[in-house]
Design a protein that fits this description.
Layout: H1 2-24, H2 29-49, H3 52-63, H4 70-80, H5 84-106, H6 110-145
Helix pairs in contact: 2-3, 2-6, 3-5, 4-6, 5-6
Length: 146
């Protein structure tokens, strides 16, 4: 009887784990962007208060943000065509700068962290200036069709 209870417990635990992982991986681009905004604000707050652990946490969350779901990537790629490489380069640049911000925070190098934070924000604003409306329109249309 005890063995059966243990097997049932393990089966339920594994099922819930699979559901949790599947749900966690289903962030959409809008949710990812909102989290990135929150993490950017945390970095800013950390820089203002010399809270290097807050800067490092925010930078790590930006550098390791969830991936855009494949279905959304396909829609964006279809809309942007050959511009997709430039769109991806913005993400790569922000990632690399976030890693640099985190390293600077670990070294308590405020100037380097602040300089790279500004460069990262320039990348965010640059991407939004060029792609935000088009990407939002194509993904908004996809959400309306679901």
């Amino acid at each position: 009887m005890q063995e059966r209870i243990n097997i049932t417990f393990v089966a339920v635990f594994l099922a819930l784990t699979v559901v949790h992982v599947a749900t966690a991986d289903e962030s959409n681009l809008k949710e990812i962007m909102q989290e990135l905004r929150d993490d950017s604000v945390a970095i800013f707050d950390g820089l203002l208060t010399d809270d290097f652990s807050k800067v490092a946490r925010g930078a790590d969350r930006i550098a390791n943000h969830p991936q855009i779901p494949p279905a959304q990537i396909q829609l964006v790629a279809a809309e942007l065509g050959p511009e997709m490489a430039t769109f991806k380069q913005f993400d790569t640049s922000v990632h690399d700068l976030a890693v640099s911000i985190g390293a600077a925070a670990e070294e308590k190098d405020h100037d380097r962290a602040a300089t790279n934070y500004q460069r990262m924000l320039d990348g965010c604003f640059g991407c939004h200036a060029v792609y935000r409306q088009r990407v939002a329109a194509v993904l908004g249309g996809a959400a309306a069709q679901e």
